[in-house]
Amino acid sequence: MRLVQRLPLMANSLATTGLSKTSWQSRPLLSFLRTQTLLNSLSLYPKINYLFLCSCSQSQTSPDFSNLVLEQSSKRGPLEPGLYLVATPIGNLEDITLRALRVLKSANVILSEDTRHSGKLLQYYNIKTPLLSYHKFNESQREQTVLNRLKQGEIVALISDAGTPGISDPGTELAKLCVDEKIPVVPIPGASAFVAALSASGLATDEFTFVGFLPKHARSRTERLMLSANEVKTQIFYVPPHKLLQFLEETSLLFGYSRRCVIAREITKMHEEFWRGTLGEAKEAFSSHQPKGEITVLVEGKAICVVETPTEDQLEKELRGLLSAGHNLSMAVKLVAQGTSVRRKTIYSLALRKFGKQIEAADDSNSC
Question: Which tens digits make up the pLDDT trace of 178-188?
């Protein structure tokens, strides 16, 4: 809608009234010519035509828009058979591409994580393609049936409840099978929660690690978080609302309370929210209430510290202090190595060279 508001006033008016098929045909020729003149006047926006204007209607369904998309797309020729991974909106129904609508309208079947949920999207755009449930609990049973249909030359579209299939959603295994069977796998890009969150986070975007959902098992989860804690890249997690406080408690300990984070909630929806602060502040802020909706948490990468290599004199001084405190040579070397970037083997060689005779003399006197 923002883009339409930048167009001339007449275009904005046209977008508000809509261009239903019936009203278009019933208008006099003069009105038709005027409208054509208006559309031609939008030459500053060559990729924007009346299809886009109709998409801004606030009605519950958009049959005219969907039909016009198909009419325009038909000029490109029919789709090739294969598996189409179609990204769908993550909250706002307007966040779908024209190409995605074309594929969904043209497919023989749409594999859906939740047919009731996806049915609302299809109804909004007046898409009548049959739905077939396909989720993590039945994908192994459905795979062979779907493969057979693909081998017969059908167009199969795969969608998840929201976002891009295969990204923390069903689709990965089916895509692998199709690749093995030499069946075309076609991505139809679009909305993705973690990409949207990262772009607006204010954290580094040049390098990042998408972790997704953490393991349920405590030990596996801790091991994964320890890896992320030492990464210099931005770390991105999907966190269920009821596990947010647990996540913040665990990451505060492993990452440090001062590590910056962004908690993105309900992206593209009415109650979209971006909370920014440190992990320690987040833990305190969300300890008293549990937020609702889909949550993406981004944590800044570990700061790169330039560590100066200590000199031999500095290492010798540390070793002498530890030996004087009663530690044996092996323990002194271990403790010094833990606090420096110098290899333990190098420190041990230095210790033998500097203190080897002293230790031997001490051992001889003790034996007497």
Answer: 999 999 999 99
